[in-house]
Design a protein that fits this description.
Largest sheet: 8 strands, mixed
Structural class: mainly beta
Strand content: 25-35%
Distance between the termini: 51 Å
Radius of gyration: 25 Å
Number of helices: 4
Shape: globular
Length: about 600
């Protein structure tokens, strides 16, 4: 990218910062928070006394966050290496191990944050280990950043602790200075997810997701879908954004956001070119990686490429992320080379559950919420992976007959969708971190005759959670969410849904990044999968697939990913009260669930599973 600035010829300080390279090759639950009413407050029975909810980990102060940025700015450490090391070791050679580096933008143009409001700066500084570096990322939800896995793990596979050492800055096109964030908003990280099959030596499966400690206002951008092929057709124009190096002759990264347009290349073109550049080494993994741009010329002139400092940033087609900046070659302009990206369509199924993982305890595992039939007391039971912890009281939940866990506003805090018994009104209970209290908003009026209500997550592919309901005539209705507790006009999905005595869904059962449903027929006790398509209305689901026959259960629940492996799981209770966990496999067949695991007895005492 061109680094010239306008205005009076003033020379600006150039930031020289170490950037990651690929290696060779809220607190405890606080009881008694009062429920408060918001503008469109619902009426109905007295609200239960609810505990506080939280994201995992503490929220670092602004002073701490800025200190981390200052440390990173002053550091010349490199992700995957100890501090004070060169970003490319002289011992790396194409004849032994390919010397991959994460790309920069060379040959691009300056752009404003308004053109890419989702762009995020990732600053990491570990004072104890004297490691500091910079990565790019994309806001894919108010509390989620999509980035590269080599920004979260080093060359030995050891994890960088972003919660302890990281700062994410959004809302600005400028990098910070020692004294100012230049209009940006600094946010901490509460947890991180790295693709479990990430290889630091080959950069295969190079995707990761950071969860922020507080929601940001930056407009999110959505990942592309698993079935997207059009975006990857050779010749398709894609847009790259980043703050990376703008020339191969220095390590300076850009102080302002840059962009460039790159054509997508075919897998065969990428594979042939990169093998040639790297001396015959197999480095490009077809199906997992894509490359874009025209062949580098050997110098800055005639080269448009990503480069060091752009790692983790997005490659965008038609308003969706299709690639994550992953690797390139030494100084990014080697003749014949291309920029290489992780192929998002191959990873959205693994990454999206980490975007949709709000839960009661604040970790990445979905928790169970139940109500005692006798006392009407609600209880939280936190997931331990393959079991649930001791129950925690949520006080009285009398006067309601449906409770569903969801996150309608995507702020990372678990919400509840609740139907009141007397009025049939459906309300949204959501945590207000600014006030430390709960709000209660009316979503729908007089849903007494709705036989099923489901909060499956995002059905329409816009990144915002939706609601489903089945009316007394058996019509399934979809209510597309707007992300703020309101919904667009309902759309009819289909009829005949009262043939099922259970309609449940929360998350993705098939591993394609789209929300699905699991239903059971009244006759025959057949379990069917309705695979989500990402579309709306009558095309919202594919034709049902019979996956099981379940006649030994009288209650079911779907709360999301209980085990923490990125696949939606299922719960089923026997009449005798034993609750079984069915771990999801991601398969849309009779093997959709692994062998059941007993998670406890005595569950006949509960009449609502939320």
């Amino acid at each position: 990218m061109d680094t010239s600035t306008s205005g009076g010829g003033r020379h600006r300080r150039r930031i020289r910062i170490a950037v990651p390279v690929a290696a060779a090759g809220l607190a405890a639950v606080v009881a008694g928070a009062l429920l408060v009413s918001s503008a469109n407050a619902a009426t109905g029975p007295a609200a239960p006394s609810l505990p506080a909810v939280h994201l995992a980990g503490s929220v670092p102060s602004q002073a701490v966050l800025k200190k981390r940025v200052e440390g990173a700015l002053a550091s010349d450490g490199i992700a995957g290496h100890t501090a004070r090391k060169s970003s490319l070791s002289a011992s790396l050679s194409a004849s032994t191990t390919p010397a991959h580096v994460d790309p920069k933008i060379i040959g691009g143009t300056t752009t404003a944050i308004t053109t890419a409001p989702w762009m995020a700066q990732l600053w990491y500084y570990d004072a104890a280990k004297d490691i500091g570096f910079f990565c790019g990322g994309s806001v894919v939800s108010p509390t989620k950043i999509l980035t590269a896995a080599h920004c979260t793990k080093d060359e030995n596979g050891k994890t960088y602790d972003w919660a302890a050492n990281g700062t994410v800055i959004t809302g600005t096109s400028q990098l910070p200075s020692e004294t100012s964030l230049n209009g940006g908003v600094a946010t901490g990280v509460s947890r991180q997810w790295t693709h479990p099959s990430f290889s630091p030596s080959t950069l295969n499966n190079d995707v990761a997701v950071l969860t922020l400690s507080t929601a940001v206002t930056a407009k999110p951008i959505r990942m592309t879908t698993s079935d997207d092929t059009a975006s990857y057709a050779a010749g398709t124009k894609a847009t790259l954004y980043g703050w990376g190096r703008t020339t191969s002759t220095t390590n300076d990264i850009s102080e302002v956001l840059k962009t460039a347009t790159l054509p997508i290349n075919s897998d065969s073109t990428c594979n042939t070119a990169m093998r040639s550049v790297l001396g015959g080494a197999d480095a490009f993994v077809e199906g997992h990686m894509i490359c874009a741009g025209t062949k580098a010329s050997g110098t800055d002139t005639g080269t448009t490429s990503a480069c060091n400092g752009d790692s983790g940033g997005p490659l965008i087609v038609n308003g969706r992320i299709v690639g994550v900046v992953s690797w390139g070659v030494d100084d990014c302009v080697t003749k014949g080379a291309y920029s290489v990206f992780s192929k998002v369509s191959a990873y959205v199924g693994a990454a999206w559950p980490r975007v949709e993982d709000a839960n009661l305890s604040g970790d990445q595992r979905a928790d169970l919420w139940v109500r005692s039939a006798a006392t009407k007391t609600g209880y939280e039971k936190d997931s331990n992976g393959t079991s649930f912890g001791a129950r925690q009281s949520w006080s009285s939940w009398d006067g309601v007959n449906v409770v569903l866990q969801t996150d309608l506003n995507r702020d990372g805090y678990q919400d509840f969708v609740v139907r009141e018994s007397a009025s049939g009104d459906v309300t949204w209970m959501h945590w207000l971190p600014a006030t430390g209290k709960w709000a209660k908003d009316k979503l729908f009026t007089d849903w007494k005759t709705r036989t099923r209500i489901v909060a499956p997550g995002d059905l329409t592919g816009d990144g915002l959670p939706d609601i489903l309901s089945v009316d007394s005539a058996g019509v399934l209705w979809e209510y597309p969410g707007k992300g703020n507790g309101t919904f667009s006009t309902r759309v009819q999905v289909g009829t005949g849904w009262n043939q099922y005595n259970s309609v449940r869904g929360h998350g993705d059962f098939t591993g394609d990044g789209k929300a699905d449903l699991i239903v059971r027929s009244k006759t025959g006790s057949y379990m069917y999968l309705y695979k989500g398509t990402g579309k709306t209305g009558s095309g919202a689901f594919s034709a049902r697939i019979k996956v099981r026959t379940w006649s030994g259960y009288n209650a079911f629940d779907a709360v999301g990913d209980v085990t923490g492996d990125g696949k939606a799981d299922f719960l089923a209770r026997t009449p005798a009260g034993t609750l079984y966990l069915y771990p999801g496999t991601g398969k849309a067949t009779s093997e959709i669930f692994a062998t059941r695991i007993s998670v406890g007895t005595g569950f006949q005492a509960y009449d609502i599973f939320g």
